[in-house]
Design brief:
Layout: E1 2-5, H1 9-21, H2 28-40, E2 46-52, E3 55-62, E4 68-72, H3 78-88, E5 94-98, H4 99-113, E6 116-128, E7 140-143, H5 149-163, H6 172-184, E8 188-194, E9 197-204, E10 211-218, H7 228-242, E11 247-253, H8 257-265, E12 268-280
Helix pairs in contact: 1-2, 3-4, 5-6
Length: 281
Amino acid sequence: MEIVLHRDAGAFAAAAGPLLQADPLRHTVALSVLDAMCRGGEPSAVLLTVHEGGEVTGAALRSPGRPALVSAVPPRLAPAVDRALAQADPAVDGVSAPVAEAEAFAAARVARTGCRAEPAMRMRLFVLDALVPPDGVPGRARRADARDVPLLGVWRRAFGVEAEHDGGQAGTAEAEEIVARSLRLGAGEMIWEVDGTPVAQACAKPMIAGASRIGPVYTPPEHRGHGYAAAVTAAASRWALDAGARRVVLFTDLDNPTTNRLYPRIGYRPVHDAVELRFGA
C-alpha cells in the first residue's frame, strides 16, 4: 500500500477522479468540493489517495475549516488513512461520509488517540425519481444573478447558523463570496418570488458525473409554512434536469422531520444515511 499526498487539486483529480465518478451518488459531496477546488479556486487543506497494486483504492480530501471527506475510504483502509491524515493535516477534527465509512474512520481515530467521536449531524441522501411539483403555491421561480448576491449571502449565513454548519462564525462577506463563486461555476441558484418579493431559495450544483446536488434550500422564518421550500426545490430540480443531469440528489438533516417528509412528496426517494462526526478530548 502507498499513500500519496497531492499538492494541487488537479493532480488529485487525475488520480482520484475515476474512483469518485464510479459512484457519483455516494461521493456527491467529495465531487462537488473537488470541482470547486479545480474550477473555482477553493483552497484545500489536504488531498490524499491510497494506491494498491497499481490502482487507486481510496481517497480523502478536506477544505480548511471543514471535516475530512472520507466517502472513498473503505473501512479496511481507515486506520492507515487516519494516521496519514493526522501527520499531513493535524487540524482534522472531524469526518463526513456515509455511515459505514465515517464510523470506521472515527473508530480508527478513537483507537489510536483515545479521543471521543460525537455526531454533529446525521443526514439522509435522496435521489429524484420523477419530479412532482407542488400545486397551488403562489409565486414563481427565477434564476438568480449577480444582483441577488447580497441577499443570498445573508440567507446563506442564516442557513449556516440555523443548521450549525459553521457555528455562526462565517461572516456575511464570506457567505456572499460563496454565492458569487457558485454563480461563476454555473450553479442553478433559484429564487422563489411572490409579487416580486424573494421568499425562498434553492441551489442546484453544477452537474458532475451526470449528477446535480440540490442545496442549500432556505426559507426565512417569516415566509415559512406556505410551501415555498417545496416549490423552489422543485424549480431547482427542474433546472438541473433541463441542464442535462441524469440524477438529481439532495441531503436532509435526519433531525428535521419536516424536510424528510417534504422531499418524498415532490419525487425524491432515500438512498443512504450519512453522518458528520466531530473529534474531542
